[in-house]
Sequence to fold (162 residues):
Amino acid sequence: MEADIYQIDVNGQTSTQMNTQDINNLDAIMTSDSQYHVLKDNRSFKVEIIEGNFDRKRYKVKVNNNIYNIQINNNLDLLIKQMGFEAGSSRFINEIKAPMPGLVLDIPIKIGDQVNENDILLILEAMKMENALSSPRAGIIKSIVVEKGQAVDKGQLLIEFE
Fold:
Protein backbone atom coordinates (compact mmCIF):
# COMPACT_ATOMS: atom_id res chain seq x y z
CA MET A 1 0.00 0.00 0.00
CA GLU A 2 1.34 3.42 -0.99
CA ALA A 3 1.90 5.80 1.94
CA ASP A 4 0.06 9.10 1.97
CA ILE A 5 2.35 12.02 1.21
CA TYR A 6 1.77 15.45 2.72
CA GLN A 7 3.38 18.57 1.30
CA ILE A 8 3.72 21.19 3.99
CA ASP A 9 4.04 24.81 2.85
CA VAL A 10 5.24 27.34 5.40
CA ASN A 11 4.58 31.04 4.78
CA GLY A 12 3.79 30.35 1.11
CA GLN A 13 6.93 28.36 0.35
CA THR A 14 7.21 24.59 0.03
CA SER A 15 9.11 23.52 3.05
CA THR A 16 8.94 19.76 3.39
CA GLN A 17 7.13 16.56 2.61
CA MET A 18 6.09 13.98 5.18
CA ASN A 19 4.40 10.63 4.90
CA THR A 20 2.04 8.90 7.31
CA GLN A 21 4.90 7.05 8.99
CA ASP A 22 6.82 10.33 9.57
CA ILE A 23 3.73 11.79 11.24
CA ASN A 24 3.17 8.68 13.37
CA ASN A 25 6.82 8.83 14.49
CA LEU A 26 6.58 12.51 15.46
CA ASP A 27 7.43 12.99 19.13
CA ALA A 28 4.60 15.34 20.11
CA ILE A 29 2.62 15.54 23.33
CA MET A 30 -0.61 17.51 23.58
CA THR A 31 -0.39 19.79 26.62
CA SER A 32 -3.77 21.55 26.11
CA ASP A 33 -6.51 21.78 23.46
CA SER A 34 -4.28 23.81 21.12
CA GLN A 35 -0.76 23.38 22.51
CA TYR A 36 1.88 20.71 22.01
CA HIS A 37 5.36 19.93 23.19
CA VAL A 38 7.44 18.60 20.27
CA LEU A 39 10.89 17.01 20.30
CA LYS A 40 12.79 16.99 16.98
CA ASP A 41 16.50 16.29 16.57
CA ASN A 42 16.97 16.52 20.36
CA ARG A 43 15.47 20.04 20.38
CA SER A 44 12.36 21.05 22.28
CA PHE A 45 9.60 23.12 20.65
CA LYS A 46 6.54 24.69 22.21
CA VAL A 47 3.84 24.66 19.52
CA GLU A 48 0.45 26.37 19.66
CA ILE A 49 -2.25 26.29 16.97
CA ILE A 50 -3.54 29.88 16.97
CA GLU A 51 -6.02 29.57 14.10
CA GLY A 52 -7.11 26.59 12.06
CA ASN A 53 -9.31 25.95 9.06
CA PHE A 54 -9.59 22.17 8.89
CA ASP A 55 -11.53 22.14 5.58
CA ARG A 56 -8.94 24.29 3.78
CA LYS A 57 -6.04 22.66 5.69
CA ARG A 58 -4.65 26.04 6.69
CA TYR A 59 -3.28 26.84 10.11
CA LYS A 60 -1.57 29.68 11.92
CA VAL A 61 0.93 28.12 14.29
CA LYS A 62 3.18 29.62 16.92
CA VAL A 63 6.46 27.74 17.40
CA ASN A 64 8.70 29.01 20.20
CA ASN A 65 7.09 32.48 19.89
CA ASN A 66 7.50 32.65 16.07
CA ILE A 67 4.29 32.63 14.01
CA TYR A 68 3.98 30.59 10.79
CA ASN A 69 1.19 30.17 8.25
CA ILE A 70 0.95 26.49 7.34
CA GLN A 71 -0.80 24.89 4.35
CA ILE A 72 -0.99 21.08 4.25
CA ASN A 73 -1.66 19.31 0.94
CA ASN A 74 -2.32 15.57 0.69
CA ASN A 75 -2.00 13.25 -2.34
CA LEU A 76 -5.38 14.34 -3.75
CA ASP A 77 -4.63 18.06 -3.28
CA LEU A 78 -1.31 17.63 -5.10
CA LEU A 79 -2.98 15.71 -7.96
CA ILE A 80 -5.70 18.37 -8.31
CA LYS A 81 -3.04 21.09 -8.38
CA GLN A 82 -1.00 19.14 -10.95
CA MET A 83 -4.12 18.80 -13.15
CA GLY A 84 -4.73 22.55 -12.95
CA PHE A 85 -8.01 22.35 -11.05
CA GLU A 86 -6.97 24.20 -7.90
CA ALA A 87 -9.82 25.48 -5.78
CA GLY A 88 -10.21 29.20 -6.20
CA SER A 89 -8.27 29.32 -9.46
CA SER A 90 -11.04 28.06 -11.74
CA ARG A 91 -11.63 31.41 -13.42
CA PHE A 92 -8.02 31.35 -14.69
CA ILE A 93 -8.18 27.89 -16.27
CA ASN A 94 -7.99 28.12 -20.05
CA GLU A 95 -7.19 24.50 -20.88
CA ILE A 96 -8.71 21.17 -19.99
CA LYS A 97 -6.23 18.29 -20.00
CA ALA A 98 -6.85 14.58 -19.62
CA PRO A 99 -6.58 13.66 -15.92
CA MET A 100 -5.78 10.05 -16.89
CA PRO A 101 -5.31 7.97 -20.04
CA GLY A 102 -8.58 6.92 -21.62
CA LEU A 103 -10.96 6.91 -24.57
CA VAL A 104 -13.12 9.90 -25.53
CA LEU A 105 -16.71 8.61 -25.52
CA ASP A 106 -18.62 11.84 -26.13
CA ILE A 107 -18.12 15.57 -26.59
CA PRO A 108 -21.49 17.25 -26.00
CA ILE A 109 -20.13 20.73 -26.83
CA LYS A 110 -18.76 22.38 -29.96
CA ILE A 111 -16.38 25.25 -30.73
CA GLY A 112 -17.99 28.60 -29.96
CA ASP A 113 -20.41 27.21 -27.36
CA GLN A 114 -20.99 29.28 -24.23
CA VAL A 115 -20.64 26.97 -21.22
CA ASN A 116 -21.31 27.50 -17.54
CA GLU A 117 -19.34 26.23 -14.57
CA ASN A 118 -20.03 22.49 -14.04
CA ASP A 119 -21.42 21.93 -17.57
CA ILE A 120 -20.20 18.60 -18.98
CA LEU A 121 -17.51 19.15 -21.59
CA LEU A 122 -16.39 15.62 -22.36
CA ILE A 123 -16.97 12.01 -21.34
CA LEU A 124 -13.77 10.01 -20.92
CA GLU A 125 -13.71 6.25 -20.36
CA ALA A 126 -10.84 5.18 -18.14
CA MET A 127 -10.42 1.92 -16.24
CA LYS A 128 -13.84 0.75 -17.52
CA MET A 129 -15.55 3.76 -15.92
CA GLU A 130 -17.16 6.77 -17.58
CA ASN A 131 -15.76 10.04 -16.24
CA ALA A 132 -17.62 13.27 -16.99
CA LEU A 133 -15.19 16.17 -17.23
CA SER A 134 -17.08 19.32 -16.31
CA SER A 135 -16.24 22.95 -16.91
CA PRO A 136 -14.27 24.61 -14.11
CA ARG A 137 -15.66 28.01 -15.14
CA ALA A 138 -18.07 29.83 -17.42
CA GLY A 139 -16.63 30.68 -20.81
CA ILE A 140 -16.60 30.15 -24.56
CA ILE A 141 -15.04 27.06 -26.12
CA LYS A 142 -12.11 28.13 -28.31
CA SER A 143 -10.99 24.72 -29.55
CA ILE A 144 -11.58 21.01 -29.12
CA VAL A 145 -8.41 19.14 -30.02
CA VAL A 146 -9.73 15.58 -29.66
CA GLU A 147 -12.46 13.59 -31.38
CA LYS A 148 -15.04 11.08 -30.23
CA GLY A 149 -13.43 7.62 -30.19
CA GLN A 150 -9.89 8.97 -29.79
CA ALA A 151 -7.52 7.50 -27.19
CA VAL A 152 -5.80 10.13 -25.04
CA ASP A 153 -2.82 10.15 -22.70
CA LYS A 154 -2.70 11.63 -19.21
CA GLY A 155 -2.00 15.35 -19.44
CA GLN A 156 -2.99 15.59 -23.11
CA LEU A 157 -4.75 18.82 -24.11
CA LEU A 158 -8.45 18.24 -24.76
CA ILE A 159 -10.26 21.60 -24.81
CA GLU A 160 -9.28 25.29 -24.75
CA PHE A 161 -11.32 28.28 -23.58
CA GLU A 162 -11.25 31.75 -25.16
Observations:
- The CA atoms of residues 71 and 90 lie 19 Å apart.
- The mean pLDDT is 87.
- The chain is about 10% helix and 50% strand.
- The radius of gyration is 21 Å.
